[in-house]
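This protein record is not my work; I was only asked to verify it. Take the sequence as given and treat only the tokens as open to question. I have pasted the whole thing underneath without changing anything:
***
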Amino acid sequence: MSTAHQFEVYFDFDNTITDFDVLDDIIQRFSINDDWRRVEQAWEAGEIGSRECLKQQLSQVRISEAILREYLGTIKVDPAFPSIIAWLRRRKIEPVILSDCFSSIIADILENNGIAGLTIRANEMRLKGDRPVVTFPYYHSICTKCANCKTSHLFRRNRPEGTKKIYIGDGLSDVCPAAFCEILFAKDKLLKHYSKIRKDCIPFRNLSTVYSHLQNLLP
């Protein structure tokens, strides 16, 4: 059996591939008021899910296409990420990005950093004038917590028996999919959740740690 059939690799995006939460930064920078703070508090308290949180927060953002592209052009990915992608591709493993961010934002950042062709499963956003219009193609009504049901993407795969799933993430939206992955790299809120209940959880601060471990894990 080839390496490609033995492993699947899933990345979160914000604060995992990037070193900060890009979507949160866009909301804070380009909102016309501070309503996003109240909405964020409601989300953190569990009063609303992330879909409703994002809908409300993005409704208060005003940004032109030119300004958005200029901003996204300043975002750098973790220095180790391109090396990880090249290394995985040499082993015929195509990683998947699972994110509660928006696919157009992620794709632009990756392209600006010289990375193309990655599968992205995320929410969708377009601009109508200076107003974001958002949709959530992977929302599942049985799970009201997440805008993008990341776990559902794991179960859509038709994999050979014995395949191991590797997950790399940092946040609350990663808790559920991480539970179904045999190998877990975690930091921040995801690490806090799993550190006491999953002894095989591998902590990381940046992707250089992940890269080093992957080189030992994968033949």
Q: What stands out?
A: DSSP finds eleven helices and seven strands in the chain. The mean pLDDT is 93.
